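Worked example

This section walks through a single chain of length 297. The input is the sequence exactly as stored; nothing has been trimmed or padded.
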Amino acid sequence: MSSSNPNQEVRVVAENRSGIVTHPREIMDLKELFVILTYHCNGNCEYCIERNVHQKGMISDENFEKAIAFAKEKGLTTIFLHGGEPSVHPNIVSYAKKSKDAGFLVKMFTNGIAIDRIRQLDGILDEIIFSYRGDYSLHNQSEWKTPLSLQVLVTQDEFPTLEDLRTFIVEKRATGMKLRIHTLNPVNQYSYDHQYVSYLEDMFMELPDDEVYCASNKVMLAFEGVGIRLTNKSLNPTHLKYSMTPSGEIQTNFKRHFDEIVKNETMEALLQKSQEKLMRLRSDKTPVSLDKVLGFY
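Given that input, the structure is written out below as tokens.
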């Protein structure tokens, strides 16, 4: 006789108002709403994943209130202030406070350029994720109230060997910032051309299946006490990822891919080597122990 409780199953379905279903290897709570405060940005990164970057317009107070209402309706837990560059929005501090007052965790991803504005958010936000752009992206955690993370995009050109990456990790985590290591998400031509990092691809292939994890739907590997996220390898490609545009439009995934990406045979052949393992892990719904990687993101 089955030991399942149908009433309990109904309750679980009812409680998942978000509709978000995660992979069993997922280490993150993905009940998030990414609120794109603006597409404007004070930087110009060639690897930027936002196809609408530098378009004019800012989210209005009315639309931000709608974002909070939507997040409540869907039972989400986190408001993620996003862009463009979110810190250029003149009302970002008040938006962060409103989100906290509404009971949400509030996080922000930033290039760190407008540091005076970002400092105003210290102690309000639950996490500030700085994109690594050089030593000016480094901050001493002991001088901040809000937990800081450093997101580092790895290419073979910047980090030719695994030992180069190891040295970087050891040096930079002395700041107290949490490190997040990512390969490039191949949504534009530059990122497509630089997505392949040979030693990380080898690591993925050599690790046993139960040491491959999932962070925000993508393959994550553990190395030197930090997570390395292979953003060209999705374990959950049909996932929901709620966002609101500055105009107030709710989207169920980021519409990021640029219209034209010229693929080449060499890159496609390199990527094909890992496809069998990726497909196997994607379909494998067997839970694995996440104890040693919880808190990496």
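What to look for: The CA atoms of residues 150 and 217 lie 19 Å apart.
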